[in-house]
Amino acid sequence: MADPADGIPGIVITGASGRMGRMLLQTVAASDKCRLVAALERPGHDWIGQDAGTAMGGPALGVPVTDDPLPAFAEANAVIDFTAPQATVEFATLAAQARVVHVIGTTGLTEADLAHLETAARHAAIIRAGNMSLGVNLLVQLTKKVAAALDEEFDIEIIEAHHHHKVDAPSGTALMLGAAAAEGRGVTLKDVADRARDGITGARDRGHIGFSAIRGGDIVGEHDVLFAGLGERITLRHVATDRAIFARGALRAALWGQGKKPGQYDMVDVLGL
Predict the structure, then answer these.
(1) Percent of the chain at pLDDT above 90?
(2) Cβ contact 25:57 at 8 Å
(3) Residue 167 clears pLDDT 80, i.e. is over it
(4) How far out from the chain centre does Cα 81 lie?
(5) What order do you get walking across the sheet with 155-162 strand by strand?
(6) Catalytic site includes residue 166
(7) Based on the domain organization, do 85 and 170 belong to the same domain?
(8) How many domains would you assign to the chain?
C-alpha cells in the first residue's frame, strides 16, 4: 500500500467510462479528503491514454486513463470498483497483493466469485455492498426488524426497478433486502427465495420471499419491501434519483477502510448501523 501524500489517501477508479465510473471520478476529484491516482479501463477502450477529465468532456484531471492495474494499485490506498464480476475477481487478487482497500459495488457475483473474495479478504480489507447509499442501508435494517416482528402470516415481496441497461436481476440491493428479511425470520434466503413466476405456478409457498424486477427508461433505482397480510399491508420504500448518492457512499467506505484489518466489511460497518 502506498503512503498517502500529505495524509490524503490515493484512490483508483475502475471502469472509468461507465455510469458509476464517471460519477466516481467526479466525486473523488471534487473531494478534499482524497486524491485520484488512476482511472482504469479495459484494454482497447477509446479512453486509454486520454486524461480522465477530458475523456468525460470536462476539465482535465491530470490523470490519464490506463489499462494496466498493477502500477495503479501500487500508488493507491483504495480501489473503488463498480464493474463486472470477472473484472472484480481479478481486481480483488491485485488489491490483496497490494494490501489496498477494495470497495466493491459490483453486483451479479456468483458463489464462486464470493469464495474468491473471501480468500482475498485474508490479505486486505474488502468493503462490499449491493448498494452504497445511507438510505438503502437504513432500509435494510428496518426490513430485518419488521420481518422479525411479523410472522409468516405476512408474505414478503421485494419489488425493484432500474434502467433498461441493467444486466442482472434481481438487483444487488433487492438481494440485500431479501437477505435482511430472511435473517429477521431466522431462515436462509436461498431456501425461501422465489425469483420468478410464470404460468401456472400454484399457490404461494408460506414463508417464501418473492422478487419482482422492472427494467425501463432511465430509472436510477427504486426498491419496495412489501409485507402483505390479511386485511393490511406494510410497504417500506427507497427511491434513488441521483447516482451521486452511491458514489458518495463508496468514497465514504474507501476512507473508512483506511487502517482496517484484512477482512470483509459492508456499509452497515461503515455507517455504524
Answers:
(1) 91
(2) no
(3) yes
(4) 9
(5) 193-194, 209-215, 155-162, 221-228, 233-240
(6) yes
(7) no
(8) 2
Q: Respond yes or no: is residue 144 known to be catalytic.
A: no
Helix, strand, coil fractions of the chain, as percent rounded to 5 = 35, 25, 40
> Residue 34 contacts by C-beta under 8 Å, 6 or more apart in sequence?
8, 9, 10, 11, 28, 78, 251, 254, 255
Query: Is 236 in the same domain as 248?
Result: no
Q: What's the predicted TM-score (pTM) here?
A: 0.82
- Please enumerate in sequence order all residues whose Cβ is within 8 A of that of 88, keeping only pairs 6 or more positions apart, or say none: 81, 104, 106, 109, 113, 117
For all residues of the chain together, what is the average pLDDT? 95
Contact 11, 34 (CB under 8 A): yes
**pLDDT 10s digits, 10-26:** 999 999 999 999 999 99
Please tell me whether residues 87 and 111 are part of one structural domain. yes
The answer to whether residues 101 and 185 belong to one domain is: no
For the chain, counts of helices (H) and of strands (E)? 10, 12
As given in the structure block, the three cell numbers for residue 145 are 426488524
Q: What is the pLDDT of residues 23-53, one digit of tens each?
A: 999 999 999 999 999 999 999 999 999 999 9
- Among candidate residues 102, 116, 162, 238, the one labeled active-site is 162
C-alpha cell at 194: 422465489
CA distance 127 to 258: 11
**Cα–Cα dist 172/246, whole Å:** 13
Same-domain pairing of 27 and 72:
yes
For residue 273, pLDDT over 90 is answered with no
Catalytic residue among 123, 166, 208, 260: 166
The rounded distance, in Å, linking the Cα atoms of 9 and 77 is 6
Q: What confidence tens digit (pLDDT) does each residue in 213-239 have? A: 999 999 999 999 999 999 999 999 999
